[in-house]
Amino acid sequence: MRRSLLTISICGLASIATAPAQAAFPGAPGPIVYAQGMASETESSGGLVAHGPRKNDGSRRLTEDNDDFSPSYSPNGRLIVFASNRDPSETRGQPHIYVMESDGSNVRQLTSGDFSDSNPSFSPNGRLVVFDRAEIGGRGGSQIFSVAVSGGEPHQISDDAGNDSDPTFTPNGKRIVFVSDRQSSARSDRSNIFSMRPDGSRIQLLIGGTRLEYEPDVSPDGRRVAFVSNRDHGPNIFIARIDGRRVRKLTNSHGSCFRTFCFSSPSWSPDGRHIAFHESGRYSSSVEVMRADGRGFAKDFAHGGTEEEGYGSYVGAPSWGPRPR
Known about the structure:
five-stranded antiparallel beta sheet, 2 helices, globular
């Protein structure tokens, strides 16, 4: 699961387009953070970058490690949690969870051990980080865990024979929304979106179907959820009420990422008016922002492109944070 730039160059941009569910905490729109980097035949470089909330705002690099991915802001906008394989010798090339100040300083490692940890996001009180964990070489699937921002042993929340991943809290902290393959309605149905209490009880199906439903992000007011699905070609970005009703498509991909473009990784703005997302094609990737009602044209905030051999630049999936307070 290592998301190094060289790996991306060889395997293609689709591997970095995926991102965790992001907790959309209410507030004034702050920066958008994403991975960005370059690769050539001789070297690779990259790290996390923060871009201001408007298209014409500048961007600044936060980290210099091209294994950093899946960033997510804290409720007060002062911290960023992310996954990284900064020490590939520690767990056979698998990532762990890290946290840092929003300016990229004071990086601390939160998880360790013989596991693959990814897709982190904060609880609404800012004290916990939820993430998914898979045991390296184990027979079980990935499960949802939490760990205190202050440090300590992770606590397991979900316990299913299948795979649970991409956890994010609702803004009121009463539920965790996540992706799972625990329930299937067709051979093509390999992931649906569920919710549960923070202790892992009262699991409910939110959004299901005969295809894939994944990458949920709950709006700051807790009333809507944005997600990705290939139910109508795509993948495309959809929004629905938090109870899963009134599903509406926001983007219009009609083929695969390699044939045309695909849209993924929605992240609500803290005021709920816009959605940042990832667009990828065969040789391109970009972070774009559209209105939450889907009207108008999306604005390109960052762009990357590669040659046929896979060398060039890329941008990863976005996470939108509140203005620090």
